[in-house]
Amino acid sequence: MFLQQTFVALGRSLPAVIAPAIITDLHLAPAWIGVYFGVTAFASLVVQLGCGSFIVRYGAMRMSQIALVLLAIGTALATLGTPLTLILSAIIAGGGGAVSTPASSHLLARCASPRYLPLVFSIKQTAVPAGLLLAGMLAPQLTESTGWRTTMLLSAAACVVYALMLQPLCKIFDTDRVPTRTFHLSDFRATLTSVIGTPGLRALSFACLAFNGLQATVTAYFVVYLTTIGYTPVAAGFVFSVAVGVAVPGRILWGWLGSSYVSPLVMMAGLALGMAGSVALLAMCSTGWPTLVVGLIACVLSATALSWHGILLAETARAAPEDMRGSVTGGVLSFGQVGALALPLMYSGLLDVTGSYGIGFVMCGVPALLVGVLLLRQRGPAKLY
Nearest to residue 271, comparing CAs of 244, 308, 302? Predict the structure, then answer.
């Protein structure tokens, strides 16, 4: 599941990391990035709301394979470079990749000890920064030497190869699938009802909206932003990859603390306040700031805005009925996709109106600040459920 999500994170973040090359080659405005990732988030939202029945019917491992193949198709479509294929790329890659987390949550919640769910989910979710790290380290170099289209096609090929490698594991891990389970349009409503109707899941959904929206905005605009304050695309990609590397041990540390020493609720509140503060500092960066200072700010942002997933997903799986973990996880994550849709689009609009990258970062950090304050006002984990 770690490797599955690594390839998904790599493929989904690739357009942002090599965005300068794509923008230059296709003569696009920088605001296009927000539109692309907004469409991706909308497709993810729809798929995550309705994927629960498919996970139950076909199995978590099989759906992981399907997610990788769809992501590969979407990534390859982007290389055609037309407006239509870019939109189709965002829809197919966003929708396909969105299945990966609910599928892995379904599988791991069944196999792991409930006590250590935050740690287990955090280890699995280190795949996201691992994928971003690979994208930041390899993609700019490959793009310079072979072109952005070849880079995208190599990523697509890697997803297909790993999907084939998962085939033998289907017999082992998909033994709980229910072949008679069918998909109904009412599944969307049932998932929303179960999430909104449960106080704990409702709180987690709002947190997911704020966190995922900020993460999507930072991922989409970080490299481009650094190029506006004097960094080359390769240097910006290097800073991005170094910062993202911090999220790998960060997620494991937060998961370990949340499993043994600190209430997951308090942990999420601290991460929310940390990401709001660090993104505000990032907005203040300008030409002439020492690379070390910019890098430190980026590392703190990575350790918070890119490191919350394991805690939140573990709490979601713990609060969900046993036979609905995949669908409930998808429901909570669908609110995250609302954030990933709304905040990059808001950022894109602010950038178009003001011409300032910093204002957008500050505004996108406000929801996380509100979440941190609201979670601190709770009086212990029991109130979350």
Answer: 308
